[in-house]
Amino acid sequence: MTAPDAGELRRLTRELLAAHPPATTGRTDFLKARFDAGLAWVHYPVGLGGLDAPRSLQPVVDAELAAANAPDNDPRRIGIGLGMAAPTILGFGTDEQKQRFLKPLWAGEEVWCQLFSEPGAGSDLAALGTRAVRDGESWVVDGQKVWTSSAHVARWAILIARTDPDMPKHRGISYFICDMTDPGVEVRPLRQITGEAEFNEVFLTGVRIPDSRRLGPVGEGWKVAQTTLMNERVSIGGSRIPREGGMIGPVARTWRERPGLRTHDLHQRLLTLWVEAEVARLTGERLRQQLVAGQPGPEGSGMKLAFARLNQEISGLEVELLGDEGLLYGDWTMRRPELVDFTGRDAGYRYLRSKGNSIEGGTSEVLLNIVAERVLGLPAEPRNDKDVAWKDLSR
Q1: For residue 239, how many C-alpha atoms fall within 13 Å in the half-sphere facing its CB?
Q2: Please, which pLDDT band fits residue 235 given cuts at 50, 70 and 90?
Q3: Which of 186, 184, 138, 133 lies closest to 162 in space, CA to CA?
Q4: How does pLDDT run across 109-146, given as a tens digit for each residue?
Q5: Most buried residue, 198, 215, 216, 339, by CB count within 10 Å?
Q6: Which segments of the chain are extended strands (E)?
Q7: What's the start-to-end Cα distance of the chain, in Å?
Q8: Cα 201 to Cα 36, 148, 158, 304, 354, distances in angstroms
């Protein structure tokens, strides 16, 4: 079967719109019909929301649907599912897992979260201690996870747990899909410096996961997790935004609308950060073009590094530009939001929330090592624990 070209995708999209007019079709029904037509993510296989078309042709479909005011799947709300769970399931899942999970994930019927980091295994994720013990056709999981976005609204989670403590830390891990509604799963809010609790800690006590919900072979969860992590960093640092999108937009608007706040020093700093933000945006476009040819590599770590640094520097400049007004904080209400809205809140919120950008999705320190070793080819840091059984490591 020949992959469809741009003209064929336009024809298929118009057929979808004619058969399911957005004005009279329910949102979820339309999204499911779009998935079934292969127009969800066109580069995915036929039958899994795609048409085996080049990834670069997805904007052709998106433009036709936007012109018709068709609903989207609210990608910010389901970003973990779209950006991390879906490519991992596609790469390592069984046919049954792909059929069960990808459609409701893409249509937004089921929200996903990520159970990776632990109190004692954040930057050194492979040191995780959550245990999964085989019991017949199931695994019994006990442990604690932390910094889990969307756990309070998620139905499913991607989970890594230690299945063989006698193996070195990277080789004794397996990867599972966990039902967040199962007995033994407890989600507790973590209130942040912003006042919100967008993150959570998750306690797993005797949680039974069928072996049919394991992704990849037993003991090879670290390899599976690398697919998740590389896609995570691309989704955080390489999302498509217009010029002056993201954090630089509110600062640029304030600068234009309130000339009385301007100083020469702030002008020079704004110019520098505006240029850096535009370079980062264009680099993200280049990275997405490279993705057309295959899976994301360590370049995504560089983009995520730039995203964190720029957000923190830009938000700091915005607070300084506003002077006394920048010290105000509009709302300290304890909420458990479903998504993070950087541009819809005030400058104080952006300043405080951006502090987490250098932690979430891989700390900047770890990402610097990845860029140094895997992009620049510099010598790796000495690691004395690579061949030591996890149970014998100092903790």
Answers
A1: 13
A2: low
A3: 133
A4: 999 999 999 998 877 899 999 999 999 999 999 999 99
A5: 215
A6: 112-115, 131-135, 138-145, 156-162, 173-179, 185-190, 199-210, 214-215
A7: 55
A8: 36, 6, 15, 24, 20
Q: How many helices (H) does the chain have, and how many strands (E)?
A: 12, 8
Listed residue (346, 347, 290) closest to 316, CA to CA: 347
Q: CB neighbours of 361 closer than 8 A, spacing ≥ 6? A: 232, 233, 236, 237, 304
338 close to 153: Cβ distance less than 8 angstroms: yes
What is the C-alpha to C-alpha distance for residues 47 and 60, in angstroms, rounded to an integer? 20
The structure's pTM equals 0.89
Distances (CA, A) of 304 to 57, 66, 147, 343: 25, 28, 18, 18
Structure tokens at 235: 């989704």
- Which residues are identified as catalytic? 232
